[in-house]
Known about the structure:
Helix 1 crosses helix 6, helix 3 packs antiparallel against helix 9 (169-190) and helix 9 (169-190) packs across helix 10 (196-205). The chain is mainly alpha-helical and 248 residues long. The protein is built from twelve helices and no strands. The protein has one domain (2-247). The protein has helices at residues 2-14, 17-38, 46-64, 69-73, 77-82, 87-108, 114-126, 138-163, 169-190, 196-205, 212-215, 221-247.
Amino acid sequence: MIAIYKKELRSYFINAIGYVYVGVFLAAAALMLCYTTLASQSYNTSSYFTMLIFAFIILIPLLTMKLFAEEKKLRTEQLLLTAPVSIWGMVLGKFLAALTLFAGTLLASCINFFPLYSYANEERAAQDYASSHIGPSTAQIVGCLIGVFLIGTAFIAIGMFVSSLTENQLAAAVITISIIVVMLLLNIVNEYIDIYAIRFVIDWICVLSRFSAFANGYIDFAAILYYLSLTGVFLLLTVRVYDKRRWG
């Protein structure tokens, strides 16, 4: 698994995909912070993180479309299947490589918050001690980062599963985009449905419905379990795809 992890992580920077992903992610994050938190002249970052999640519609497929589709296209899939590594080891190696790049870029984007804290310090210095509460909520930022990371983790697992079904990277990207769009927009559709059973099912599928607690600076363990379960389900589906191909 370690060898596959290193190989996959290195492959992101052998070609342009890794550099494009990091550049687009950081540029988009900076612009979104400018047009949300900074434009509203407030320290509330929940709108920024919500918009960042919607940016995953493009960012995550860019990260996952090549994971298995490229192996099929280059005819190296059989080498993976006959390598002395379990199917789980192969899948987890590729998944953790994509997750490492995602997590590293998300962490690097936190540099955008430095101006908020710097401005808050200057504002507090210009006012009296009673106004020391001025500034961004660290609890909200940390909570949102955890929520965004978990949602991104689930989307990576979904994108990897889609990539395992086709050898066309563009097709893998388009299908992943479609799935993420549906999972994000179901929360809006749910507001117009009156039937409780349908609302319950849609609420379970929609990933944004569980993000509100993180956006308020709280850790929702039920939401964490949901995102981890969603990730586990799609990892298992990917394993089943390759288990069937190895022995089929």
